[in-house]
């Protein structure tokens, strides 16, 4: 099954897949209170925002990027596909579907995919095997790394801590084998495809 994990914006809240998710019995744990407010840290964070990351000089580009971003129509959730907005919703959907292995695709292997809600760090802590398709991701690079895509390679290497890195060829081969097994194949036969 395909499950979409969304981030930001209200565009998904009225979609059938999100309503389908909300119909599940989702238990969100209480989040413990974090660090107390620290005026010094707040000043350092503001200095960082203004001068370094993203930097005041980059804010117009960042805003334009967010204003102009849009999902490719082929990547939008279809009516029967679940949509989750956080790790707790994703966990409820996966438990409902009996899924234990997640295969990620998207942007970026060194930021959102591991660290966003529903990302590999959270899902691995919950016991899921988390993998990625090499050709279906990229990384946030900087001027020193972009020519050789060092951050992409580092991000893919880090995925090995959570699961596996598959090539698109691997995925297509597994999908072809699944199709050949048909709907009658039991779970053990399906899982065995990953080991071949």
Residue-averaged pLDDT = 89
Q: Estimate percent helicity.
A: 40-55%
How is the biggest beta sheet arranged? 3 strands, parallel
What's the shape?
globular
Strand order of the main beta sheet, please?
A: 3-4-5
Cα end-to-end separation: 21 Å
Q: How much strand content do the residues show? A: 5-15%
The tally of strands reads 5
Question: What class, by secondary structure content?
Answer: alpha/beta
Count of individual helical segments: 9
Q: What ranges have pLDDT less than 50 throughout 5 or more consecutive residues?
A: none
**Series of secondary-structure elements, N-terminal to C-terminal:** EHHHEHEHHEHEHH
The gyration radius over C-alpha positions equals 19 Å
Describe this structure in words.
The protein is an alpha/beta fold and 196 residues long. The chain has helices at 16-22, 39-52, 59-68, 87-97, 112-115, 120-125, 150-159, 168-181, 187-192, and strands at residues 3-5, 82-84, 101-107, 129-138, 165-166. A three-stranded parallel β-sheet has the order 3-4-5. Strands 1-2 form a two-stranded parallel ribbon. The chain is globular. It starts with a strand and ends with a helix. 18% of the residues are buried. The mean pLDDT is 89.
């Amino acid at each position: 099954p395909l499950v979409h994990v969304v981030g930001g914006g209200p565009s998904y809240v009225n979609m059938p897949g999100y309503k389908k998710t909300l119909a599940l019995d989702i238990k969100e744990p209480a989040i413990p209170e974090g660090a107390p407010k620290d005026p010094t840290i707040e000043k350092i964070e503001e200095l960082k925002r203004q001068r370094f990351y993203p930097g005041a000089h980059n804010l117009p580009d960042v805003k334009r990027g967010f204003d102009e971003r849009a999902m490719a129509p082929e990547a939008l959730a279809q009516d029967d596909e679940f949509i989750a907005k956080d790790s707790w919703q994703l966990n409820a959907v996966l438990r409902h579907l009996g899924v234990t292995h997640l295969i990620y695709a998207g942007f970026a292997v060194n930021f959102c995919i591991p660290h966003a809600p529903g990302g590999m760090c959270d899902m691995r802590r919950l016991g899921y095997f988390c993998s990625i398709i090499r050709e279906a991701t990229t990384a946030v690079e900087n001027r020193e790394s972009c020519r050789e895509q060092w951050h992409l390679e580092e991000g893919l290497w880090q995925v090995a801590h959570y699961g596996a890195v598959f090539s698109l060829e691997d995925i297509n081969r597994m999908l072809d084998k699944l199709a050949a097994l048909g709907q009658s194949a039991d779970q053990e036969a399906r899982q065995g495809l990953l080991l071949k």
